[in-house]
Specification:
The protein has about 525 residues and is α/β, with parallel strands linked by helices. It has 3 domains: about 280 residues, LigB-like (Protocatechuate 4,5-dioxygenase, Chain B), CATH 3.40.830; about 110 residues, Hypothetical protein ph0010, domain 1 (Glycoprotein, Type 4 Pilin, 2-Layer Sandwich), CATH 3.30.700; about 80 residues, 2-Layer Sandwich (Dna Ligase, domain 1), CATH 3.30.1490. Helices cover about 35% and strands about 20% of the residues. It is built from 16 helices and 18 strands. The strands form 3 sheets. It has an 8-stranded mixed β-sheet with strand order 7-4-8-3-9-2-11-10, with helices on both faces. Strand 12 and strand 13 form a beta hairpin. The longest helix has 20 residues. The radius of gyration is 32 Å and the shape is elongated. The protein starts with a helix and ends with a strand.
Length: about 525
């Protein structure tokens, strides 16, 4: 009995010690849940697959190499590039030709760059997008435009995402460092690998891309080398024909040219273009948007010093498609003194109308520009709210006369407002917009640059106009801007600018106001 008592006493003492040393803990699952609540999902970033092979791994070396290539390239292209075709071999082979394309976008701002090419590692059918968060190069990370990527996937059953097939691919990766060195920072990327033997599928994909990018500031890059492995002379023959065919923007012509060259049986010619599906998508979009194509540069691997083997080469071509509109006003802008004279003339016009002065301001007469015929708008704002706006689109009156007449019209004839009262004048700010002559356009989706272009829509006896600053002030995208112009200003169907039933004109404006 005594032994049992001692054992019980020992057991109780042991339990007390264990409780003191090992206090009760919270359940493990609760701890894990708390940690999970504070953790963030790691970013998915594609790492370089061919740095050190196709281009240098070292940041400084890569940057210097691209700068040298760009310095040796030239361009005479006018208009903002919308699409271009570039090669994707190692920089030592195709970098010279690629630089001619990238030179055309130096210091230009785009919101998104879509890069399309063929898959060299996996068999695919359709367009396969990369939907990670970013892609990395030795020059830094480039964000992926997740929103547009998801929109593309949602629009077409032939478009999907698979990051795995993108991991080893070089054709898209090699374009990124050039873009990082040339474009204004802030752009995002969409990377897509594409292949299809069916032109209807390619047309469907092209249509989806065009719709998603409509009205947006997007550059489309097609990554493709040309002839593979013929002799130097046969490469020159094949590549010249293929580039000429690309410039037609006719994919049937491209297919016929491609097939005819292959049928000739030129030795070792495996293909006329490894990215033919991507090329055709680019051609379809260029044709739909009425872009102008230009050949920028051609070379092949046989031209490469110390490396070139002229018996077995790969061809490289650079082609750009632009909207070919370059209507900047630089040579016709009013200088600061002329702007001040224009505003003073408008202010004096209102003061004379209200008998606040009897002196006519004729300071403007010292400037020859006031005798030139110009289109203008005069806008009156009261405490920053619109109070009147009337103008002449066509340059039918001398600038001085136009300013006087349009100032009076904005104050007293704008049907949207009561006539301006004398006691309001102290709160009025005057803005003058001097216009370039309107030019008719055929591709409004790409030829209208919001914030830069004013737009006129005409159909029969109906017409409407928006000044360039309307887009800036409202924040509208192109579709919204044009729908309001057609419906609200011209009284036409909102989509009349898309179906070809109305004539579209653009103009530019130099806008200045009283301070």
């Amino acid at each position: 009995m005594k032994k049992l008592f001692l054992f019980a006493l020992f057991l109780s003492f042991t339990i007390i010690i264990l409780i003191i040393v090992f206090p009760k803990q919270k359940p493990t699952s609760s701890i894990l849940n708390n940690n999970q609540n504070t953790m963030t999902t790691p970013k998915i970033i594609r790492q370089p697959a061919v740095a050190g092979q196709f281009y240098p791994t070292d940041k400084k070396e890569l940057s210097s190499m691209i700068e040298r290539l760009l310095a040796n390239a030239t361009t005479t292209i006018t208009g903002k590039p919308q699409i271009f075709i570039v090669p994707h071999a190692g920089y030592v082979f195709s970098g010279e030709t690629a630089a001619y394309a990238f030179k055309t976008v130096a210091d230009i701002s785009y919101d998104t760059v879509i890069v399309l090419g063929g898959s060299h590692n996996y068999p695919i059918d359709g367009l396969i997008l990369y939907n990670g968060d970013a892609v990395s190069t030795p020059l830094g990370e480039v964000s992926v435009d997740k929103k547009l990527t998801e929109e593309l996937i949602a629009t077409n059953q032939n478009i999907s995402a698979d990051n795995k097939i993108h991991e080893p691919e070089h054709s898209l990766e090699v374009q990124l460092p050039f873009l990082q060195k040339t474009l204004v920072p802030g752009w995002q990327s969409i990377l897509g690998l594409i292949n299809s033997d069916d032109n209807e599928t390619l047309a469907s994909i092209a249509d989806s891309i065009e719709k998603v990018i409509s009205g947006k500031n997007v550059l489309l890059i097609i990554s493709s080398d040309l002839s593979h492995y013929p002799s130097y002379a046969n490469a020159l023959y094949s590549d010249t024909k293929i580039i000429d065919s690309i410039l037609t923007k006719d994919i049937n012509n491209f297919d016929q040219t491609f097939s005819a060259i292959i049928a000739e049986g030129r030795p070792n010619l495996d293909t006329c273009a490894c990215g033919s599906s991507a090329i055709k998508v680019g051609m379809i979009i260029a044709n739909e948007l009425n872009l102008t194509g230009n050949k920028l540069h051609y070379s092949n691997s046989g031209d490469t010093p110390d490396y070139g083997d002229k018996s077995r080469v790969v061809g490289y071509g650079a082609v750009v498609f632009t909207n070919n509109k370059s209507n900047y006003m630089n040579n016709n802008n009013l200088n600061p003194d002329e702007q001040a004279a224009a505003l003073s003339l408008a202010r004096n016009t209102l003061e004379l109308a209200f008998n606040l002065t009897t002196d006519k301001n004729e300071d403007y007469k010292q400037y020859p520009v006031f005798s030139e015929k110009r289109g203008i708008f005069v806008t009156l704002r009261k405490n920053e709210e619109l109070r009147g706006c009337i103008g002449l689109i066509e340059p039918i009156k001398e600038l001085s006369a136009a300013i006087i007449e349009m100032t009076e019209a904005a104050a007293f004839e704008d049907p949207r407002f009561l006539s301006l009262e004398k006691n309001e004048l102290k709160d009025i700010t005057i803005e003058v917009s001097v216009l370039t002559p309107p030019q008719k356009i055929s591709g409004p989706k790409t030829e209208i640059e919001l914030g830069r272009h004013g737009v006129i829509v005409k159909k029969g006896s109906r017409s409407g106009v928006f000044l360039p600053q309307v887009a800036t002030e409202t924040g509208w995208d192109l579709n919204t801007f044009m729908a309001h112009l057609c419906a609200d200003k011209a009284g036409l169907p909102a989509n009349c600018w898309l179906d070809g039933s109305a004539d579209i004109y653009t103009f530019e404006a130099q806008v200045f106001e009283e301070k």
